[in-house]
Amino acid sequence: MRMRLQYFRFDKDRRELLSLSAARALALFLGTFSFINIVASFRLPGLDANLWWIDLRALPELPAKFFLLLSSLVLISFAVRPPQSNWRRITTVLFTGLLAAAGACNSIKFYSLMAHGTIRPAFPLPISLFILAGLILICRAASRPDFHPAQARATVRTTGLFLLCLLAFPFAQMLCFGKTDYRRPADVAVVLGARAYADGRPSDALADRVRTACQLYRDGLVKKLIFSGGPGDGSVHETESMTRMAVQLGVKPQDILTDRAGLNTQATVNNTERLFSQINARHILVVSHFYHLPRIKMAYRRDGWDVYTVPARETYLLRETPYMMAREVAAIWVYYLKPLVSHAV
After folding, report:
1. Which H/E stretch holds residue 27?
2. Do 176 and 44 form a contact (C-beta atoms < 8 A)?
3. Of 1, 15, 161, 251, which residue has the fewest beta carbons closer than 10 angstroms?
């Protein structure tokens, strides 16, 4: 009986240490991410990506930034050395609790928009709900008066969980944001290219994107389509393959514009922005596969365009999807960090 009680206590201590390590790792990730975004936004407003995890647009811009800056410092402080004094515990719980309240409001707004049909999520859990759960975990850990000294030495575990956060965050964006359909009336829909076979046929991925965009056109949500892509496997360009399919699906040729230099996501963003000016487009929809949409949204937003994304309706789950999602994890962080580094040097 005594051995069983000792094992239970040991197992409970181990769970508590793991919980504290997870809270520290998450606090370090959110705090560092927020701090970098706030500092970067003072130089270039488009670089602020805090909207990816919390929406404070109901507040005036400067107070919201100041609050997030203080919150980031509190979270980083908690992660580096969990509070043992009462004033640090109270401060950490206060700021984390306010962030959790904002996360709860974001989640309520998500389900309100879903109920009204404004958004159509295929994955009905907003990222704000996961953030809320994480902030509650941090609050619980910070409020503990019986802080375990061994937790201060658990740097390996905390570092490992921090790296896990770096991987999980893009995946959450792909599933929660990428899988949500934000379609609404707009001036134009941009369709990003994918493989076109040597005989000119669009690949299944490309066909899914074109078919989704053509449905937006037939439903009267957009007046024009912009097809952006690069060379195909043969002599037929991706945009030419896309145009042929769109015409067959009832799109008027005069309502199609093409960007034949869309060799990558950033090139598509740059090239289509010039086309927006030519056709006086202000409201934009973007169509691609769900795993691609967070990076597209980020690239447009940094140039001042608040586009709305529509995930391609897939006829079946592509075999390449796990690989493409894994690749997007790296691509998202590269697209996020590259402008920060280039403006820092």
Report:
1. helix 2-41
2. no
3. 1
Site of tokens 């759960």: 133
* Separation CA 166–CA 163 (nearest Å): 5
Residue pair 37/48 in contact (Cβ under 8 Å)? The answer is yes
d(Cα 176, Cα 335) in Å, to the nearest integer?
Answer: 19
Tell me, letter by letter, the H, E, C secondary structure of the chain.
Answer: CHHHHHHHHHHHHHHHHHHHHHHHHHHHHHHHHHHHHHHHHCCCHHHCCHHHCCCCCCCCHHHHHHHHHHHHHHHHHHHHCCCCCHHHHHHHHHHHHHHHHHHHHHHHHHHHHHHCCCCEECCCCCHHHHHHHHHHHHHHHHCCCCCCHHHHHCHHHHHHHHHHHHHHHHHHHHHHHHCEECCCCCCEEEEECCCECCCCCECHHHHHHHHHHHHHHHCCCCCEEEEECCCCCCCCCHHHHHHHHHHHCCCCHHHEEEECCCCCHHHHHHHHHHHHHHHCCCCEEEEECCCCHHHHHHHHHHCCCCCEEEECCCCCCCCCHHHHHHHHHHHHHHHHHHHHHHHHC
What single DSSP character describes residue 309?
A: E
pLDDT tens per residue across span 83-119: 878 999 999 999 999 999 999 999 999 999 999 999 9
Strand segments, DSSP code E, in 46-155 are: 120-121
Q: What Rg do the C-alpha atoms of the chain give, in angstroms?
A: 23
Q: Is the pTM of this model over 0.85?
A: yes
Residue 16's nearest CA partner among 159, 148, 165, 160 is: 148
pLDDT in tens, 34-50: 999 998 888 776 667 89
